[in-house]
């Protein structure tokens, strides 16, 4: 058919974003201009690539096949660019990195230090604290997305998303300094029955771990406060207004003199932190360098070593 790359990109954007309005906003065009381009592409194809659903459009099977091929083309082009940059010994460009709040605090300062060796490389960082199931959709707008999910769950299965593991972060029970469990080296789930819990909403990994603890203990968790803001959870715990499951590496520096972290035994409690990306963006040399630096920083944190 002699497809042009811009045509393939437009079809893929519609596949990823789901509406002409969203595609227009992302590509800095008017919805009318996007609609006209889609009509032109469809005339060239000779078969329907989109169909009306209510007041919107969606891709047909033929359109989705074309969108899938666009991903392969984009990856091949990015790999060619990366090979050429490697030949020239050049690492330059801008990488957009999104992460949930506590991962940003945990990883970004060390990442920036590691990347100081690449003066032509710019990393733009963004906060995206969304539900576990919503992280994969962010790869449309960012080069790298730091996501988390509970232990013993499957990673994103979308073939358009590449998943790179970073680390497993244990979840410990946080209690006030004068709490009955504050002096313990570890705690069993059954010992937490009846406690007032502070937890995130159900779609977040920590809350799912709280429910797993409750199931093991044989009694429902009594959740009295809900928030996704870890500093607020820490403050409430420190004042004796409840207990919480908190991520060990992200929290341990905040605990000293304020509250105590007690490991849980008898159940695997943790969250898996990983990086999501589109394959073609992961192929870029600049993105590869940032991803490798993230992995190095994650390994340092897991080992408890010094930055660098």
Automatic annotation (TrEMBL):
Statement: the UniProt record of this protein carries the keyword Signal: no
Domain HTH lysR-type, chain residue ranges per copy: 3-60
Domain of life per record: Bacteria
CDD domains from the UniProt entry: PBP2_LTTR_substrate (cd05466)
InterPro entries listed in its UniProt record: HTH-type_LysR_regulators (IPR050950), LysR_HTH_N (IPR000847), LysR_subst-bd (IPR005119), WH-like_DNA-bd_sf (IPR036388), WH_DNA-bd_sf (IPR036390)
UniProt keyword list: DNA-binding, Transcription, Transcription regulation
Keyword DNA-binding: yes
Protein family (similarity comment): Belongs to the LysR transcriptional regulatory family.
Name under which the protein is recorded: LysR family transcriptional regulator
Species: Microlunatus aurantiacus
């Amino acid at each position: 058919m002699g497809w042009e790359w811009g045509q393939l990109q437009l079809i893929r954007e519609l596949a990823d974003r789901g509406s002409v309005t969203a595609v227009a906003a992302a590509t800095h065009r008017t919805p009318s201009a996007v609609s006209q381009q889609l009509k032109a592409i469809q005339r060239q194809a000779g078969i329907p690539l989109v169909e009306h659903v209510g007041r919107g459009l969606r891709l047909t099977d033929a359109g989705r096949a074309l969108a899938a091929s666009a991903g392969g083309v984009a990856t091949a082009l990015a790999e060619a660019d990366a090979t050429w940059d490697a030949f020239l010994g050049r690492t330059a460009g801008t990488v957009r990195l999104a992460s949930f709040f506590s991962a940003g605090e945990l990883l970004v300062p060390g990442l920036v230090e590691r990347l100081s060796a690449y003066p032509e490389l710019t990393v733009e960082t963004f906060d995206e604290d969304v539900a576990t199931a919503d992280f994969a959709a962010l790869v449309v707008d960012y080069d790298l997305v730091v996501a988390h999910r509970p232990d013993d769950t499957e990673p994103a299965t979308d073939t358009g998303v590449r998943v790179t593991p970073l680390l497993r972060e244990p979840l410990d029970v946080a209690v006030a300094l004068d709490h009955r469990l504050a002096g313990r080296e570890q705690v069993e789930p059954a010992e937490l029955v009846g406690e007032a819990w502070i937890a995130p909403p159900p779609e977040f990994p920590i809350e799912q771990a709280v429910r797993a603890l409750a199931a093991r203990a044989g009694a429902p968790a009594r959740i009295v406060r809900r928030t996704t803001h870890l500093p607020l959870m820490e403050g409430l715990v420190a004042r004796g207004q409840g207990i919480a499951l908190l991520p060990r590496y992200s929290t341990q520096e905040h605990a000293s003199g304020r509250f105590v972290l007690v490991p849980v035994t008898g159940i695997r409690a943790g969250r898996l932190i990983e990086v999501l990306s589109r394959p073609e963006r992961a192929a870029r040399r600049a993105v590869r360098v940032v991803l490798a630096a993230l992995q190095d920083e994650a390994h340092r944190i897991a080992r408890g070593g010094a930055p660098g």
